Amino acid sequence: MIVAIVNIKGGVGKTTTAIALATMAARDGREAVVLDTDAQSSASLWAWNAEQNGHPLPFDVESANIATLRRLGDGGGRFVVIDTPPTGKITDEAKDAADFVIVPTSPNSIDLQQTSAVADTLEEAGKPYAVLIVRAEPHTIALRSAQEYFAERDASIFDTVIPKRADLGNVYGQPFGSNMHGYEDAYRELEKATGEAV
Ligand SMILES: Nc1ncnc2c1ncn2[C@@H]1O[C@H](COP(=O)(O)OP(=O)(O)O)[C@@H](O)[C@H]1O
Ligand SMILES: [Mg+2]
Predict the structure, then answer these.
(1) Domain annotation for the chain: domains and CATH numbers
(2) pLDDT tens digits, 62-98
(3) Is the CB of 9 under 6 A from ligand 1?
(4) Which residue ranges of the chain lie beneath pLDDT 70?
(5) Rounded Cα distance, 174 and 171, in Å
(6) Is any ligand 1 atom within 6 A of the Cβ of residue 106?
(7) Which of 34, 59, 74, 160 would be a feasible disulfide site paired with 186, CB 3.0-4.6 Å?
C-alpha cells in the first residue's frame, strides 16, 4: 500500500500526518516506511532527532527522489507513506505512485480553495483520495463550514477530524506516545477506504 500526503499549501500538517500514519501501521505490526521527498527534510530530521534522543521512530524514514518513486511498484507489501513538498515534479510523481492520496488541510477558508483545487485534480485523474481536516477547533463554525464546503463539492473526505493540539506541535522530533490525537481513527478509515488492511 502506497499512500501519498499532498497539499499545495506548506505547514498544513503533511509531515505530521505521514509520521502519525506510519506509526499506526508499525503498531499494527506492519513494516512501515516514510519516503521523504521534501528538500526541507522535515520527516528525515524528525527521525534523526528521535534517534539522537535515544527514542527512535518505530519505522525507517528514507529520502527519496523521482527514480525511487518510479521503482516502488506496489510497495512490496509494506505500508509506504510518501511525504511531499507543496509543489513540483516530485509531488506529481508521488501522486502517480500512490494507491491513495491524503490531502490534509486546516479548516481555514484560505486553505479550503487550494485544497479543493488539489481534490479536483485527483478526482479528474481518477486517483482514490480523501481530504483530512487537521488542526481543527472542535465544534466551531469554521469546522462545520469546512465540512459543508467539501460536502457541497462532493469531495471525498475523512469523517475523522484531527484537532488542533499544542501537544501535536510538540511531538516533532520524538515518537508519538499513546495519544495519537485522532490519527488512529484516520488510519482505520484509510483501511476501510482502501478495502484492505493498509
Ligand atoms: N493538529 C495539530 N495541532 C497543532 N499543531 C500541529 C498539528 N498538526 C501539525 N502541527 C504543527 O504545525 C506545523 C506544521 O506541520 P507539518 O506537519 O510540518 O506541516 P507540513 O508538512 O504540511 O509543512 C508543525 O509545527 C507541526 O508540529
Ligand atoms: Mg512537511
Answers:
(1) 2-194 (3.40.50.300)
(2) 999 999 999 999 999 999 999 999 989 999 999 999 9
(3) no
(4) 196-198
(5) 6
(6) no
(7) 160
Nearest to 62 by CA among 101, 1, 18: 18
Closest ligand (CA of 41): 2
- Residue 77 burial class via C-beta count within 10 angstroms: exposed 0-12, middle 13-18, buried 19 and up: exposed
Ligand 1 pocket test: which of 14, 15, 16 has the largest number of ligand atoms within 8 Å of its C-beta? 16
Ligand 1 centroid – CA 15 distance (Å) = 7
Atom of ligand 1 nearest to the CA of 83: 21
Residue with the nearest Cα to atom 27 of ligand 1? 169
Cα dihedral across residues 87, 34, 22, 193: positive or negative: positive
Which run of H or of E encompasses 24? Answer: helix 14-27
